[in-house]
Amino acid sequence: MFERFLRRSETGEQAIPTIDVREAWERLASANSNAVLIDVREPWEYRSGHAPRALNIPLGQLGSRVSEVPRDCELLLICLSGHRSAQAARQLQHLGFSRVVNVKGGMARWRLHGLPVE
Fold first, then answer.
1. How far apart (Å, rounded) are the C-alpha atoms in residues 17 and 56?
2. Arithmetic mean of pLDDT, 8-17
3. Half-sphere exposure (CA, 13 Å, Cβ side) for 17?
């Protein structure tokens, strides 16, 4: 993992910050937070249960729906496990978004910790 970070640094690619699901929930629940949760899973996955107030923009549609992504907020990206959301975070960084964070463990861990699901 450290080697991957070094390779990204050497190529000039910015490392993607990650947080765990509890910290993500705390940021979303905070009254003075401007964090937005973007769920990059497919619509059928999203319908099977998602975090409250999460926006569903599937990874494959992110480029064409980038106008729906707020630029003035911290963007917390989530999927099922954390892999697709990390890809989405990198894609958003390349599109000029600077405040992107990957939610480690995704909805699988979110549910495991008993956090709210709609």
1. 21
2. 66
3. 11
pLDDT of residue 14: 74
Is the pLDDT at 7 greater than 60? The verdict is no
Query: Does residue 79 contact residue 107 with C-beta atoms inside 8 Å?
Result: yes
pLDDT class of 31 with cuts at 50, 70, 90: confident
Length of the chain in terms of residues written: 118
Fold of the CATH domain 17-112: Oxidized Rhodanese; domain 1 (3.40.250)
Residue 5: in which H helix or E strand, if any?
A: helix 2-11
Domain ranges of the chain: 17-112
Q: Which one of 40, 57, 76, 79 is the catalytic residue?
A: 79
73 has catalytic annotation:
no
How far apart (Å, rounded) are the C-alpha atoms in residues 54 and 48? 13
* E strand segments, 46-99: 55-56, 74-78
Spatial neighbors of 118 by CB under 8 A, at least 6 apart, are: 49, 50, 51, 52
